[in-house]
Amino acid sequence: MTLKRFHTIIISLAAICAANFSAQAAEPIEISGITEPFMDVTLGLADAGIIHEQFFKEGDAVKKGDVILELDKNLETLEIVRRKAVMDQNKMVYDSTLTLSQNTKSVSKEDLSKAEAEYNVSVAEYGIAVQQLANRQLTAPFSGSITEILLRPGAPVAPYQPLARLVDTSRCYFTGHIEGVAAANLQLDEPVKIEVDGGQTVSGKIYFISPTVDAASGLVKVKAIFENADGKIRPGLAAKMSVK
Hints:
Number of strands: 12
Radius of gyration: 32 Å
Number of helices: 4
Strand order of the largest sheet: 1-8-11-10-9-12
CATH topology of the domain at 28-38 and 168-243: Elongation Factor Tu (Ef-tu), domain 3
Largest sheet: 6 strands, antiparallel, barrel
CATH architecture of the domain at 28-38 and 168-243: Beta Barrel
Shape: elongated
CATH class of the domain at 28-38 and 168-243: Mainly Beta
């Protein structure tokens, strides 16, 4: 075999390998997984009490800051009235003491400092009372939909007891697993197609690629995010993600 013929064979083999590699690279990567809501939390309160009123029911949409449930709050409401009266009185004393100190110089610095300190303490105590009243209300930490109300008005509540479940499905995650070697071909923010059971297909992008491989399975966790403002996709359905 001549040297020229040998070089020709080597070049041909290299071209074939390159073509095969390109063909493999062009094949889309498919990952099976499940869809999940963007946010899914079970809410509770730090205080104990009796549920006094329920403002929303299961299935209702709420906005961030909306009050979902409220505990009995008579004592907290009265405490706010008391603390405000003390604060207003201390402010009046402080203002009059300050005016005398500025106009007549007949008030010592100690008396002025004492009046100011008492006013500042009463302001803080009033703020604490307001916060204690707010703690009697279960508010939505984000906009979403109520999927479950676990206790009704009249029921006793223990601290941190689950009371309601709130989900945000305006965006959703696809969560799946891929072999560790194949995960090297994925990139964050890479566009993907997600086909949900039922035939619906949406576009998304890769949101998370685990930096570690699960030792037991040899798989890497991958998450993609997609928009679902119209609510057509219900989280929890199985799905497949394709990456070109």
